Amino acid sequence: MRSAIKATEAARLIPDGARLMIGGFLAVGTPERVIDALVARGARGLTVIANDTARPGTGIGKLIDAGCVARVVASHIGTNPATQRKMLEGEIEVELVPQGTLAERIRAGGAGLGGVLTPTGVGTVVAEGKRVIELNGREYLLEPPLRADFALIRAHEADYFFNLTYRLAAANFNPVMALAAECVIAEPDEIVPLGAIPPDAVRTSGALVHHLVERRH
Amino acid sequence: MRSAIKATEAARLIPDGARLMIGGFLAVGTPERVIDALVARGARGLTVIANDTARPGTGIGKLIDAGCVARVVASHIGTNPATQRKMLEGEIEVELVPQGTLAERIRAGGAGLGGVLTPTGVGTVVAEGKRVIELNGREYLLEPPLRADFALIRAHEADYFFNLTYRLAAANFNPVMALAAECVIAEPDEIVPLGAIPPDAVRTSGALVHHLVERRH
Amino acid sequence: MDAKELIARRVALELHDWTLVNLGIGLPTLVARYVPPGIRVAFQSENGIIGFGARPPEGMEDPALVDAGGGFVGAVPGACSLDSATSFALIRGGHLDMTVLGGLQVDARGRLANWMVPGTMVAGMGGAMDLVAGARRVVVAMQHAARGRPKIVRELTLPATAARRVTLVVTDLAVVEPTGDGLVLRERAPGVTVEQILATTGAPLRVEGEVPEMRLAPDPSAGAGQALR
Amino acid sequence: MDAKELIARRVALELHDWTLVNLGIGLPTLVARYVPPGIRVAFQSENGIIGFGARPPEGMEDPALVDAGGGFVGAVPGACSLDSATSFALIRGGHLDMTVLGGLQVDARGRLANWMVPGTMVAGMGGAMDLVAGARRVVVAMQHAARGRPKIVRELTLPATAARRVTLVVTDLAVVEPTGDGLVLRERAPGVTVEQILATTGAPLRVEGEVPEMRLAPDPSAGAGQALR
Q1: What torsion do the CA atoms of A198, A199, A201, A207 make, to the nearest 10 degrees?
Q2: Chains with ≥3 Cβ pairs under 8 A against A?
């Protein structure tokens, strides 16, 4: 058996200045307890790679509010005026990436691919400074892979081997992020016995997960 | 409701000379009834994109035996002496592709990506004639996307919207192939009512499937 | 009938049977209310749901079942969930028959701008660039003018969402089709004259013969269509 | 104890606790029999299973549960299935702690050839090239010589599987570690002398001081280890 850790222990594993991928889409599918613990320990200088920064007071918004974040790589920050304000004030640096490109760059980082060749962004400001590769008469941007020091994953069920499932729209970026970090920390809603998740229902193999946060008490 | 077709109808949809992706790994997860129907109608000049050509008398091996195939794109033909013999005799042209590169080229074709940047094959005969791209001091082969006219998919369950599930090692190439063809034909073991497959259990959305072959009688 | 309903009911006629359709946040989501009878459509939300349905009854909302705007939705029988990489594989890979998006500007070449107004707060492109690059048909649903200024312009002054020419522009005044040969006026809203449209359009608009009045999908209260049924 | 068992029992000592390991077809699959006590390993098969186990009892085989060689296997509690793209994302992405593969040749630079003999029937590389390019550690399990000819050679005469230097070569005579500075003899099989090894090796082999005898994982009948338990 592998043992679960407390959210506070997870937060202690993550040093200031770390590069984090955090699952979720407007805080749906975001590991809230690990985020609360990061805020509580006063984390500083984090880079957050995520779809968005949610809203103030929810999900990644809590890290923004508490001043934990120095850099954001996201597809959208429009729902969080705090992120926008801190960006204009120079407190947070923001890199905007089209959502599909973000997902694919993370997948490439996790799958050992050298980059992504995408038509998205060709002929727009997203293409500025990037290598354009022509293939069969079409142009593609060469977008680099993304990796992180930690991936913070929100799962529905986990078993004792750390196999994970997700529910409905709460999967979103979690499965690809679980591929692309040196250390993967998963926060499940439920922990169930080995064998309780059928092999075909597992969406992220426990072989990819380094730490599991214990069930909410 | 959408209606299911007979395997013979599926075989009639596929013209001689068509380019097919066929799911399966050593005939596990291969749509045998559509293959039998293609053999029965005497299909000719097919291009088959698949992991392997199975063994004589099983799965894709039946298409090889019956002389339906002019070209094979696969990672391995070692289990089928008939494929090897026909290749040496010039009856079948064979392109060998590393298995992970094959899966990723098909996924790229289905996901609208311009190609795959993979470290696999660098410094080997696989790299001959291919563009090598250096990124962050590492070399990657630029491998082109693959698409087909038809994807022949073997599923476990299908519902009336043609959502699909797979079982254990029978998934293999089926989910990516269902993304990468103009016409996707799925052969399920079972057909169940709409709603009987929970949303999180669906592995291929029915929105990707054009035709469903009726249950075996 | 207000302008938004008019636009949504016209766009709804573009829905094809048994197809996968993405509706953008805001005005485009209204289109789901006007699916014509007999048309079965699966609505995709880029955050990972195919087959989402109307908001559930009070107290039955599921925190894990929201649309791309974060609003609670339901799921129809046959719905499925997707992770973000797979969701955008479908979008980028041409598996969407259509996306309906709001617009800030469309220019004479049919290019869309809908994600950024320089000098204001920057929101980010979210999934818009992938949707415009990848969907087989891109329908822009927007007001013809904003604060008296045309939104159909000669050349974009806002950053483009994609280099690609959109399929159709549906406004409260007209249906405009961008072609390789410029913008063509295809339909006019009920009671609107061609002159009124031309006067409110900031780009050359070709008029070929008689311009028919827009047809509209029926009002839902008078017997709606079906989503994935 | 025959040569294959010796090799498998030595390779088994390379298994690390709580890791993901791929075993190639043939000799390497024997390694699963000798997992040392207390070591929990998940065995991956590139056709899409993590956590496969021993062949089921007669009559309980599942046609959908086979290993990469097509042989029936079982699944341990906690097993999961993967499609081929995801399976190779794990392989290529460095998520495998180790792959154990058979070999035709290893050369002085530590390069492996194991997929093709020109002039004979061509089988194809299957997953071998991805495995060698992607696994964190590549252990080659092979006979030291075949028909009296060394399989460890100065320069490959067969087509390489990858440009990458493998981690370790375990044979029936020796354990050899390819380094940036050439091949180093690390261990010798029980009863085998350094001289015998050098005489059967076709490439320069550095000997640093005393060469210890191989340790071996215990015999399974004497209380085996566990796979994913």
Answers
A1: 120
A2: B, C, D
